[in-house]
Amino acid sequence: MSIVLVGFMGVGKTTIGNLLSEHYDKPLVDIDTYIVETIQLPIPQIFEKYGEAYFRDLEYQALQKWIDKDVVISTGGGIIESELSKDILKGNVNTFWLKCDIEILFNRINHDHNRPNASGRSLNELKALYSKRELSYNEIAFKHIDANRPKEVVASEIIESL
């Protein structure tokens, strides 16, 4: 069964995913990277050329492909924007929500042009998006993990809970 990491952009899903991947000797599937490699376009260009709904469908297809495999999955922050993806994630008992203070996330992602839903947004705009997504993360997560701590501590808490 897969281990799935969800949470807002910049929270450290891929970083923690790499630590879990090493610990369990399982491949890491970063859904954003998988989509970029499959479509051969960076995420901002996918959004621009095809729209967000198309990207969310690609996320859903990737999640469907990998959810039943013995892998660690790092999702994109907006994967919960798709009801179909949320339904899949609700059924996985190893879905972990990495939570982090929005101010910390804002400092990490504010100038990252590879994040179309964050680039150029104010702290208040990101707070609004975070608040909107928070309910969905809570709804699908097996366990909430405080990601304000060092990455090794976060990974250890996940390992101890499995």
TrEMBL record:
Per the record, the GO terms for biological process are: amino acid biosynthetic process; aromatic amino acid family biosynthetic process; chorismate biosynthetic process
Q: Which PROSITE patterns match?
A: SHIKIMATE_KINASE
Entry's localization field: Cytoplasm
Cofactor(s) this protein cannot do without: Mg(2+)
Name any one GO molecular function. magnesium ion binding
By its UniProt entry, which Gene3D superfamilies does this protein fall under? P-loop containing nucleotide triphosphate hydrolases (3.40.50.300)
Entry's cofactor comment: Binds 1 Mg(2+) ion per subunit.
Record carries keyword ATP-binding? yes
Q: Where on this chain does substrate bind?
A: D32, R56, G77, R133
Biological function: Catalyzes the specific phosphorylation of the 3-hydroxyl group of shikimic acid using ATP as a cosubstrate.
Give the HAMAP family listed for this entry: Shikimate_kinase
Protein's UniProt name: Shikimate kinase
Q: What is the lineage of its organism?
A: Bacteria, Bacillati, Bacillota, Bacilli, Bacillales
